[in-house]
Write a structure and sequence with these properties.
With 161 residues, the protein is an alpha+beta fold. Helices cover 32% and strands 25% of the residues.
Length: 161
């Protein structure tokens, strides 16, 4: 059951998928339509899952699930991963690789491999104040508070001296 992401309870589970490039306006419209259909039909053992989504910065797909109503099972999580993998193939984009880092450079969202990010930190091309995206958050509350933070307040801090 598709609901507005902003109406989901703060303890709702989130999954964040970052793209290795920005989506075009046409791609965004198509992806939103596909997300609407997928989430409207997303179930666990035949029961509806109450979920919503956001697309942030034309690059991040954030799916939220109200686990107070029904929790996702292995099969329903597999279905969502399969859906994301279909988007990857259709739009020739990487959404599943967690070993890459996105961060802000002014109004621009940069995307680097973890190795490149470490190198940039070593070369002081980024600092503890660089805004990074912590895609490891697991709830809407964490997403709202700790997703877009200075590197010093994220797991990225281990690379910045």
């Amino acid at each position: 059951m598709l609901v507005d992401f902003n109406t989901l309870p703060e303890e709702s589970r989130v999954w964040i998928y970052q793209a290795n490039r920005s989506f075009t306006e046409q791609e965004l419209e198509e992806i939103q339509s596909k997300l609407d259909v997928f989430i409207e039909n997303w179930t666990v053992h035949g029961s509806d899952l109450q979920a919503g989504y956001l697309i942030k910065y034309k690059r991040f797909i954030v799916i939220g699930l109200n686990q107070n109503l029904n929790k996702a099972s292995g099969c329903s999580i597999d279905a969502s991963v399969h859906f994301i993998q279909q988007l990857e193939k259709e739009y020739q984009v990487d959404l599943m690789d967690k070993m890459n880092v996105s961060y802000k450079q002014g109004d621009f969202i940069a995307y680097k491999t973890l190795l490149d990010f470490k190198k940039m930190a070593k070369e002081k091309a980024i600092s503890k104040n660089t805004i990074v995206f912590n895609n490891l958050v697991t709830s809407i509350a964490e997403f709202n508070e700790n997703w877009e933070v200075p590197a010093s307040e994220s797991w990225h801090s281990r690379f910045i001296k």
